[in-house]
Amino acid sequence: MSIATYHTPLRRHLVLWIFIFCFFISAPWLVLYTAGYRYSQAKHSLEPSGTLIVDSVPSGAQVFLDGTLIQTTPITIKQVSGGSHLIQVTKNGYSSWQKTLSLVDGQVTFANQIHLWKTNQPQLVYAQNVTHLVANSNGQDIAIISHDATSSWLGVWTPTNGLTFNKPLTHSSSTTFSVQWDEVGGNQLLVQGEGVSSSVFWFDTTNPQTPPPLPAGTYHWSKLRNGLFGARPGFLIDAHSSSGWLIKQIAVPKTVLDRDGQDEIFTSSTRQFISFAPSIQPTTTTTAQLPKGSWHFDEDHNDYLIGQDATRLFLINRNSSKTLSGAFIISDHADPELYQTPTNVLIHNLHEVWMWDGINYPTLVTRQSNPIINAVFDQKEQTIFVATASQIYAIELDQRDGQLTTPLATFDHIDDLTILQNTLYIAGTLHAQRGIWEYSL
To answer: Which pLDDT value is given to residue 151?
Structure first.
């Protein structure tokens, strides 16, 4: 027979009141905890914890926070304590992404522009000795320069239709060329060999006739004149194909080095200047001094001017209220090259890639010990693809925890790189096969 324990009413009431007291003491803390608040030892107070938003292309990638698998992208991770955290994003068949990001209590940290690159192999799509690739802004065509044992050829190649245009670059001893599409119609091509005295070629891909030869000089596409404009000592050259091939040479003082509408590069005594019409006051001209050199206009692109001599560039923002703050010089021992988008200019020389938004001073993106062949943006301008003599890299522009560099492909040799419809095209040699190689992003 068991004997039941008897609790007096006072004892029962005391237990009840202790329970109620503990509940009211702990309940607010539990509410605050579930709401994401944590005690900050640094501030000796309750602070809301941080939130981390992670998203990737492609989605469905696994997200690890400090080594612990959380979920797959896209995901919002709440109640993350402030401080440094290791975030890893992985998916089978793709490159991995990893960064240590600093989260702040009460704030949202974003890692929502993560691009995981396919770990696929380049595919040969055109088996010829191609050394130059320039994508058209229409997103359909690529201008190519190919070579055989005796000649060089300018062609237009598309991924769907192959070679649609092919013309010989006659009487050219140069193997190094610059190729530019016109930005107005997107049907004409300018090909210039190295040096002022080198051959210059001008083609209209919609016109089967061969245009007359252009005089030696430096040329650029002029939006103002809707045609080709060039300069040589003592002359300016105006070329149009709208109503037949028309080439007109205009005599100018020898002090004028180049001119396009109101924009002019000229010499005065031993100094050289550029005068241009700012966007903020288009009826006036502003003058800036240039270092001594053989300067000429490279292109009039949106609201900024680009000029070049043998090893240097000037970039002038027409919207700048201060001339000197809108003009920059970037120099190197190698001929600088440009890749332009509506909002940015990529400039690369032998070992560096710079990015310029037309307002601030150009930003150094990367410096490589191996020679840089070319650099291009992705479609959203969040990643830069860089080609060296044998490697293709993707460089993420997010500066947090350093720029993430991902190797994409290795070649025997690379001659050029361009991007078209979210696909990289590489002119180079792989497994002893020369041609155009396709790398799907």
So the answer is: 84
Same domain as 94, residue 228: no
C-alpha span between 428 and 388 (Å, rounded):
11
Q: Are strands 50-57 and 108-115 parallel, antiparallel or unpaired?
A: parallel
Tens digits of per-residue pLDDT, 106-133? 888 999 889 999 999 999 999 999 999 9
Q: Radius of gyration of the chain from Cα atoms?
A: 31
Nearest to residue 303, comparing CAs of 324, 284, 317, 322? Answer: 317
Do residues 97 and 161 share a domain? no
Torsion of CA 258, 264, 266, 268, to 10 degrees: 170
The whole domain housing 292 covers: 123-440
The average pLDDT across 219-242 equals 81
**Burial letters for 2-21: b for 16+ Cβ neighbours within 10 Å, e otherwise?**
eeeeeeeeeeeeeeeeeeee
What is the spatial distance between Cα 400 and Cα 403, in angstroms, rounded to a whole number? 7
Q: Are 46 and 69 in contact (CB under 8 A)?
A: no
| pTM summary value | 0.83
Amino acid at 115: H
Number of domains in the chain: 2
Cα–Cα distance list, 368 to 93, 326, 392, 407 (Å): 28, 27, 12, 13
**Region 168-173 average pLDDT:** 69
Q: What is the largest CA-CA distance in the chain?
A: 127
Element (H, E) at 17: helix 9-34
Q: Is the pLDDT of residue 64 over 70?
A: yes
